[in-house]
Design brief:
mainly alpha; elongated; single chain; 7 helices
Length: 152
């Protein structure tokens, strides 16, 4: 079996899981992925999506950015504040999925306008407006009818 080119992601995940004193099954349950799938990731046989990495990072209580870099999804040189801003928006429980998506699109348009947009390097990254993975549960309330607007 040939392993995929995912850096040392699998070894790192195994090390983090063991230091958190979690079994493979416990981490899989906490991250919402199957036990065999997580095992394949740890052995370097599968390359997980950014969404799966985010779920695993949350379960391990580590930075998703670290996993993105180790998986080759993000360049290690990537602007840390950009990644942190995107992560903060995606993690905000008070925003709906649609609001998160729109906010990230606006953020990206301002970055592009100022010469820092990720479209310039031709690669989509986690959080780009086209690649926003918003968990399904975050869409509740999109048709919220409570008055929140102020006259202006």
């Amino acid at each position: 079996m040939a392993s995929l080119n995912v850096g040392n992601l699998g070894e790192y995940l195994r090390e983090q899981r063991r230091s958190a004193q979690l079994s493979l099954r416990q981490l899989a349950d906490a991250a919402g992925v199957s036990n065999p799938y997580l095992s394949q990731i740890e052995r370097g046989l599968r390359k997980p999506s950014a969404e799966v990495l985010q779920q695993v990072a949350k379960a391990l209580r580590i930075s998703a950015e670290t996993l993105y870099v180790r998986a080759g999804i993000l360049d290690a040189e990537r602007d840390r504040s950009e990644v942190e801003t995107r992560a903060a928006v995606l993690a905000d429980p008070t925003l709906t999925g649609r609001q998160k998506q729109v906010l990230l699109q606006i953020y990206e348009s301002f970055r592009k306008e100022n010469g820092f947009g990720s479209a310039e390097d031709g690669e989509a990254t986690p959080g780009d407006s086209e690649a926003v993975d918003v968990p399904a549960g975050d869409t509740a309330g999109d048709s919220d009818s409570s008055p929140r607007r102020t006259a202006g």
